């Protein structure tokens, strides 16, 4: 398989005919990193030299999205979908779904790699329960299940064969969270130099999630007074979107000020550059292990973040800054330094990795492999809790709100208005067409909301 073939209609059987040696897999996941924070792709004002190395190594999906969230901690359902390849209302109760009766049987892609003989190891953030962690991974260290006060006092565990991870065995990481997780990953890679089995390494950072407290040497790159205030900055969101007082939105005062947004962006960019440095250590360790040429590397974010856009700070909304994320896939025989604008989800990662490794994709996975012949999507469904529903195409985005019984509609032309500032909801024909697509999506994935109901969100 040559580089031109990747993402150009390769079938699952073609992957299965690859040499007997399976590729290794390295998944790097950041926390709250939005799509427009890669220097080499879309942001000359940020320093990401090591993420840029990954971009040069693979295919960057410029239209990668999350499907949304059913709780304010959007990262939990986002990661559940990424691990299972399932849609939002089908992830099981144990993986943070609030809709009893809609959960389905599921497979987790790291678990499938483990069953296929891979040595599976993880470090960092795991928001989907200790039992599922041990189903997926045969080993790990500096494992974070939640409850972090800050990045210097991260509660972590050593791997526990019993899967209990009791409070008595919890400890604080001795370094900044990103460095501690990276130490574990680098140590694992060193042990793989002459390993007989292929490996899957899952490295999930807590950065750049708040509290944004990068060391001063990273903060110095971004003087607050020099930060560009987003063109779609607003002092307040123009209407009640159903989630204006959630935790993330309380990280900055009301009304928003340009000066505060500059401070927030300075801290946010500094955290991204800090985790970028640690990613560089992992890339170097992969090369030193001798496995740079036989490892599929995925880099992604779990969700985005507003940081001052539209008068918002958090991720509890369906604007691009919150639902679009970085997604880069590279590896042996695959395209290099390529951009793709296909509409996709980061939850497509699960079937994609299985297909690239020549492993069968179970029918429990509802998302589609980016390496197969699945037709390009003409739209993506988006949702946040019981108050926002949306759909986007390669041109338009429609968002429907029902906050406390008050409905509101937004329509954006993403080609002419990528910052989503001009509401075209008066274009009733386009709204009607997209509403039809949205309802079809909702039926397909068992969304319990009924858009025609007066108080559909309830």
Please tag this protein with its features.
disordered N terminus; 458 residues; Arylsulfatase, C-terminal domain; Alkaline Phosphatase, subunit A
From N to C, what is the helix and strand string? HEHEEEHHEHEEEHEHHEHEEEHEEEEH
CATH superfamily of the largest domain: Alkaline Phosphatase, subunit A
**Overall helicity:** 25-40%
> CATH topology of the largest domain, anyone?
Alkaline Phosphatase, subunit A
Number of helices: 11
Domain module tally: 2
Measured between the Cα atoms of the first and last residue, the distance is 51 Å
Tell me the radius of gyration.
Answer: 21 Å
Overall CATH architecture of the largest domain: 3-Layer(aba) Sandwich
Report the count of strand segments: 17
Structural class: alpha/beta
Topology:
Elements: H1 12-16, E1 24-30, H2 49-57, E2 58-61, E3 64-65, E4 68-69, H3 75-84, H4 109-115, E5 119-125, H5 130-136, E6 139-144, E7 155-156, E8 171-172, H6 177-190, E9 199-204, H7 216-219, H8 258-288, E10 295-301, H9 320-323, E11 327-330, E12 338-340, E13 344-345, H10 349-356, E14 380-384, E15 388-392, E16 396-403, E17 406-413, H11 428-444
Parallel strand pairs: 1-9, 1-10, 2-12, 3-13, 4-14, 5-6, 5-9
Antiparallel strand pairs: 2-11, 7-8, 10-11, 14-15, 15-16, 16-17
Helix pairs in contact: 2-8, 6-8
């Amino acid at each position: 398989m040559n580089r031109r073939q990747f993402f150009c209609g390769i079938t699952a059987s073609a992957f299965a005919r690859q040499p007997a040696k399976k590729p290794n897999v390295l998944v790097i996941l950041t926390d709250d990193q939005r799509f427009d924070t890669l220097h080499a792709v879309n942001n000359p004002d940020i320093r990401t030299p090591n993420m840029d190395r990954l971009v040069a190594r693979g295919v960057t999906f410029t239209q990668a999205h999350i499907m949304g969230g059913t709780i304010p901690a959007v990262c939990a359902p986002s990661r559940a979908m990424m691990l299972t390849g399932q849609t939002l209302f089908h992830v099981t109760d144990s993986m943070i779904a609030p809709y009893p009766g809609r959960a389905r049987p599921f497979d987790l892609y790291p678990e499938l790699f483990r069953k296929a003989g891979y040595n599976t190891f993880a470090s960092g953030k795991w928001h989907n329960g200790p039992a599922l962690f041990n189903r997926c991974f045969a080993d790990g260290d500096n494992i974070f299940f939640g409850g972090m006060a800050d990045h210097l006092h991260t509660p972590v565990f050593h791997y526990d064969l019993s899967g209990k991870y009791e409070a008595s065995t919890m400890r604080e990481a001795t370094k900044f969270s990103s460095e501690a997780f990276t130490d574990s990953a680098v140590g694992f890679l060193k042990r793989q130099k002459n390993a007989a089995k292929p490996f899957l390494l899952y490295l999930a950072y807590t950065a750049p999630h708040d509290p944004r407290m990068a060391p001063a040497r990273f903060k110095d790159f971004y003087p607050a007074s020099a930060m560009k205030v987003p063109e779609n900055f607003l002092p307040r969101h123009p209407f009640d979107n159903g989630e204006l007082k959630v935790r993330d939105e309380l990280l900055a005062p009301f009304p928003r000020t340009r000066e505060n947004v500059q401070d927030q962006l300075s801290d946010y960019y500094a955290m991204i550059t800090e985790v970028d440095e640690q990613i560089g250590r992992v890339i170097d360790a992969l090369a030193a292990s001798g496995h740079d040429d036989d490892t599929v590397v995925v880099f992604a974010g779990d969700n985005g973040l507003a940081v001052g856009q539209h008068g918002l700070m958090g991720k509890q909304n369906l604007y691009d800054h919150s639902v679009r994320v970085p997604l880069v896939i590279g590896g042996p025989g695959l395209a290099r330094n390529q951009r793709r604008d296909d509409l996709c989800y980061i939850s497509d990662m699960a079937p994609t990795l299985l297909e690239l490794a020549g492993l069968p994709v179970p029918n429990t996975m509802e998302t589609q492999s980016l390496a197969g012949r699945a037709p390009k999507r003409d739209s993506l469904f988006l949702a946040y809790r019981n108050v926002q529903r949306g759909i986007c195409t390669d041109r338009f985005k429609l968002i429907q709100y029902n906050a406390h019984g008050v409905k509101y509609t937004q329509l954006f032309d993403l080609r002419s208005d990528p910052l989503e500032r001009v509401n075209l909801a008066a274009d009733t024909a386009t709204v009607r067409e997209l509403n039809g697509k949205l309802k079809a999506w909702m039926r397909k994935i068992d969304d319990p909301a009924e858009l025609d109901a007066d108080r559909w969100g309830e």
